[in-house]
Amino acid sequence: MSATDAGCRVYLVTPPALDPARFRDTLAAALDAGxxxxxxxxxxxxxxxxxxxxxELLMPVAHARDVAFLLNDDARLAKELGCDGAHLGQEDxxxxxxxxxxxxxxxxxxxxxxRHLAMEAGELGAxxxxxxxxxxxxxxxxxxxxxxxxxxxxxxxxEIPCVAIxxxxxxxxxxxxxxxxxxxxxxxxxxxHPEGPAAGLRVLxxxxxxx
Length: 211
Ligand SMILES: Cc1ncc(COP(=O)(O)OP(=O)(O)O)c(N)n1
Ligand SMILES: Cc1ncsc1CCOP(=O)(O)O
Ligand SMILES: [Mg+2]
Prior knowledge:
By secondary structure, the chain is an alpha/beta fold. The protein has helices at 20-31, 48-63, 75-80, 95-102, 115-123, 148-157, 174-179, 188-191, 197-210; strands at 9-13, 38-41, 68-72, 85-88, 106-110, 128-132, 162-165, 183-186. It has one domain: TIM Barrel (Alpha-Beta Barrel), CATH 3.20.20.70. An 8-stranded parallel β-barrel has the order 1-2-3-4-5-6-7-8, surrounded by 5 helices.
């Protein structure tokens, strides 16, 4: 999951619900359509055995395409299953313990729209900080609204990459890229694109390149 030398890149998050055996081909076709730095498996409320099966089926698809594979919410399971890292929210356990457990693996932390949370995450060794939501989203109920000033401030002050999330599309992403986002994390822009995920990724890549 390399960031700044390649400019802003796509951070793809899985759809909220999926059947891994069926989704495998959908994922492969989407990843083959363009540039993705990282895939986050985000299956809220799935049982650990179901998450495990999804990791076993989907991580090889990502790795075959040089895409890092992160697990949402659970650093211990990420470590146990050999994922490239974990994404943790503010309610997802002890971040310092997760940092120690993950070792060299990637740790990303949700910081909502808070400079304070982002500096805390940076101090404890997060590999990236995530800000959002930048736009209204149908994927998750959100309580925080982030603005481009946060991305400008963070990228001027710190080397640690920042991720923008929340309602991001090809049409609205330009200001985020220009403000310094290292990654744009998306669900709907790819999986719900009217012309399909491959088209969704292609137009998002093109919009980032044009920003
Ligand atoms: C890249 C990225 N940023 C933020 C989130 C949100 O994480 P969290 O606040 O823990 O909420 P849930 O995803 O667990 O609903 C994320 N998953 N990925
Ligand atoms: C997981 C998450 N955290 C903040 S907004 C969001 C959902 C992002 O999905 P979309 O790209 O469809 O708005
Ligand atoms: Mg979480």
